[in-house]
Design brief:
The chain is built from five helices and 19 strands. The protein is of the alpha+beta class. It has a single domain, classed as Double-stranded beta-helix. The strands form four sheets. Strands 5-6-3-10-13-8 form a six-stranded antiparallel β-sheet, with no helix packed on it. Helix 3 runs antiparallel to helix 4 and helix 4 packs across helix 5. The protein is globular, with a radius of gyration of 19 Å.
Length: about 250
């Protein structure tokens, strides 16, 4: 298998499949492929050997079904996966026994052997993250996986007991050794009127942390003045200083 990541702002992952090579991704994620590449859509892959495994993957933000891409038995083929938002594509070599947690839309594709499931799920109240709470996907192997992060990827190596407080949406990927929790923002006035949101992610070392500088809600907030529409404006509120307002509005409507 030969891989190449092309571009910077909107990168593309190109993979040349040969022989028994196989790539696993969610349905509809590929951008283009040569005619020789073969597709097989199934629920029983990516670590899922039964219905409950497929449901666990779906609850984590992945799909109930996955698609396997392979080359012909005696030939080769090329498939490409393009980034969905401006950002970065990272290659992660997952060794046996290693675990990573990635944001719910971060998984791009992986080689055969990948296992996906729910790593963290927490309800954060009405109006936050579209009312779906905060979810991180668990990635294990052994495999080689590719993860998409929004904007630039900032990497921190936390020492044992070292704590990093992060807006939840900026958490792109963490090693399984990092303790992840969600807590209220310190101070009532800071939480409700400070414009920084009600919740903050607490990452405690040891382990490596990958933060993403761009989140989809923040991107929607930046574009909303040029798009118009009430629904777009409400989505943008969630991404920036309007988190508290969205929650309070939901309470009054209820």
């Amino acid at each position: 298998m030969k891989t190449n990541i092309v571009g910077s702002t909107l990168p593309v992952l190109e993979i040349e499949l040969r022989g028994s090579d196989k790539i696993v991704a969610e349905p509809g994620e590929f951008s283009w492929m040569s005619d020789a590449v073969q597709m097989r859509t199934t629920a029983f892959t990516a670590g899922s050997k039964g219905v409950w495994g497929a449901l666990s993957r779906a609850f984590s933000g992945g799909g109930l079904f996955m698609t396997e891409y392979s080359a012909p038995p005696h030939g080769s083929g090329t498939i490409a996966f393009a980034a969905k938002v401006p950002g970065s594509i990272l290659q992660v070599d997952v060794q046996p026994g290693q675990t990573y947690l990635i944001h719910r839309h971060g998984f791009l594709c992986a080689t055969e052997g990948v296992q996906l499931g729910t790593g963290f799920r927490r309800s954060l109240g009405a109006g936050i993250f579209g009312g779906n709470g905060f979810v991180m996907q668990k990635l294990t192997g052994p495999c080689t996986a590719w993860v998409e992060l929004g904007g630039e990827a900032m990497i921190y190596d936390l020492k044992p007991g070292e704590v990093l407080r992060v807006h939840p949406g900026h958490v792109g990927m963490i090693e399984g050794s990092v303790n992840f929790d969600v807590a209220f923002m310190r101070g009532f006035a800071n939480a409700v009127f400070g414009g920084d949101g009600l919740f903050v992610a607490r990452l405690t070392g040891p382990g490596r942390v990958w933060l993403q500088t761009l989140t989809v809600p923040n991107l929607a907030h930046a574009l909303s003045p040029y798009l118009g529409g009430e629904s777009v404006g409400e989505a943008a509120e969630v991404g920036a200083a309007g988190v508290a307002g969205a929650v309070l509005r939901g309470l009054f409507k209820g």
